[in-house]
Every structure is written in C-alpha cells, then in structure tokens.
Amino acid sequence: MSDELNNRTPENTLNDPSTDQQGRSFGFRPNKADFPEQNIRLVALEGLLAIETIDVTEALTQASNLVADALKADKVDVFLYDASQEALVSLGVSQTPTGDKQKELGLDFLLIENGGRTVLTFLNEETFITGHAERDPEELVGIVEGLGIHSVIAVPLYVKGQLRGIVEVTTLIPEAFTRADLHFLEAVAGWISIILHRAELTRQVVYEASEEARRATAEELVTIIAHDLRNYFAIVAGHLGILKRKVLRRKDAVKGKPPDPWEINEGDIDSVDNVFNQLNRMVEDLLDVSRLESGPFYIDKELFDVVGLVKEIANTFSTVTNPVQVVAPSELYLSADPRRLRQAIENLLTNALNFSPTNKPVELIVTTATQANTTWAVLTVGDKGRGIDPEVLPHLFKRFVKTPGSTGLGLGLYLARQIALAHGGTLAVESMPGKGTTFIFSLPLEGDFAGIDG
Length: 454
Hints:
The chain has three domains: 3-206, GAF domain (Beta-Lactamase); 215-294; 302-449, Histidine kinase-like ATPase, C-terminal domain (Heat Shock Protein 90, 2-Layer Sandwich).
C-alpha cells in the first residue's frame, strides 16, 4: 500500500470520538492504532449503529466517514436518486480532501442523462469494481482527470426493497480494492439502508407532530376570529335590512320623479347584500370546520322534497350568462337535514359556476340508484369547464385545498363531503382535463321514502 494511504492525514486518525480538527462531527471514530487491522471493519459497523441523528444528510455523512476509515478510501458517497431532478445526489459524502474537491467540481450531482459509471451502476442495479477507472470508457472525464480517481467499488442501495441509490467508494490508488472489500461494502449498504429508513421515519413523525400542532393552533385562532366576525355580521345584517327598507319607502315616495344618480338605489343594496352573504358563508364554513374537529356534525333530519330544494337553489344561482339546468322528477322525498343539504348543494354549485365557461349551462340532476339492496338519492352537479388536474384530484376534499382560479377558502368541497358522510352518504368526483367536472352526491333513501314520483 502506498505512503499516501499508510500515512493518512490527522483528520482520519483522530482519537476524539466525535469531531476532527475543524470541529466537524464524524460520529463514533476510534483510534485505529488501538485495534488490529481485521477488527477495523467491525468497529465501523458498530459505529454505524451508533449514529442517532434524524438529519438524513448528517447521518449519511457520518456513515461515509466511517466507511472511508474502514476501507482507507479517499472518498465515499451515498448517492440518492432525486426523481424531481432526474439525478443522483450525494447526500452523504465523506469529509475528506477528495470529497471536498468533488463538491467544488459539482460532481456530487449527477444527471441521469449525462451517464457515467456511477449512473450506470444505479440503472443496472449491480455491483461494480475496478482498479483502473481511467480505462473505463463509461467513466466521466471529471472523475478521472478532475479528481484523479483510479479504484472504485459501488453497490446498489435499497430501502425496504426499493432502489434508492448507490454507495460508492473511491481512491486515488490503482487496484486498491479486493472482492472482500466489495462484499464488505454490500454489508455496509444494508446498515446504511437501516440508518436512512430510521432517519426518514423519525423526520416524518417529527414533521407530522409539528404540522398537527400548527394546525391545531391555526384552527383555534380561526375559530375565535370567525366567532367574533359573526357577531359583527349580525349588526351589519341588521343595518342592511333597515337601509333596504328605507330605500324601498323612498322609492314609493318619489314615484314619477326623475331618478337621482347620486342616490342609493335598491340595486346598490342588493350588491352589498350579496357580498355580505358570501362573507357570512365563509365564516359559517370556518365554524363548521371547527365543529367537525371537536366532533361530528349535528344532523337534524326531517322528511322533505329534495327536488323542490334543488329547484329553489338553482333559481337563486342561475343567471343569463351562467344558467343552471335542473333535470329531476316532479318530487323525491328524502329524510335528511335540509339546511345541511342546502349548504352542500350550494357549495358544489358555487364551485361548478366558478369554473363554467360563459353561456355554458351547469347541470344539476336528481335521480335514484340501487346498489347492494340500498336505494340512493343521487344528485350530480356537472360543468363544462377546463376540468381538474389529475394530481389535485386525490387531495380535492381536504381542507384549504384550492385549485388554480378558485375563490374562497378551499373549504366548500371538504364540507360538502363531510355533510354526505354525516348522512351515511358519499361524495365522488369525475373529471378530465378539458372536458369538465362532475360531482356525485349520494344519500341513502330510508324505508318507505325510497322512490320517485313523476
């Protein structure tokens, strides 16, 4: 073995178990002079078990340092595949001069499309060993000429059976590694897999706990604000009602006179009233979310004609430029909470109208269906808009999820689904980009009411 490998720099032979001369953490690193050569690799494996950090980069860096000591390597990398960048990224590179130089040259980030021996080892999912990287036609020029690498061993890295990257060990010396070294690296990769999996799981648990705490704090704040706003809204609603009555009385008193352009008219009041109702609906949605967090919806069921309710809502929402067309039997009686059902239908209709092109009708269809000996009342709300991105669909019914171009707080669809579930029903969605979206709101019909008239 050359003098370069036998006379390692002080950073590779420290007695301090945790840091080097620059104070960088290396994990458990015993003085190799205290151990026979055959025990150094066992000590490295023990050191891997001693890694406790939940930071993935730090954990993999500590592992790389231990392997570099055990194999007398100039550089050790734990490359992980990043699908978003289509690249292998060295999240754990040994803190050695060659490792530092690799970062300077940007060789710790390897695009798959650029190829190279490291990439091929990953793609082929096979081990690799060479003592003359300079003779390998697949090796990147930067590895050979920039870093001066000659000997390489590499093995695939699997986590829970899934290929995640490779572990690669390199030196500046030709023919430095043996098959025994390669087998040792395969064992090391198994330990690194455990370290990586543990770090990622722990990080996920910490993240979820943090998110839950943040969400709980935010929801408590939102609830307080919503309650306070509702109190103010009651006062505003009262004054709007008084103002509207005054306008109507004034209108009756000045019949036959030319209108005053500066005078408040009924249309002005209606515009303000519509905006106020939208704000009030947002506040009610926020309060409903708060109620759901503390317990289920309170459902006050009664028997009523759902077709009549649907037609009433459609008449309110339908406009000349955005008509709402109802297709329904003459009547269909349903045992449900009419206030909650109105809320769900209005939320679905508001969403459909928001994405419906001008002069393209939104369809509101009422029918029944039988499945597994149960008859269901089925309400479908369909638009002919641009559709929903397939990536958004799995998250559509979560709180505060908004699609591009949507208005409001992102609670309407979440609450509509919760209302369906509270009635023992379902809310599903069908959508294709460019072909519109259809929401299917289904509620079970009970007993003698499982039928349509008309």
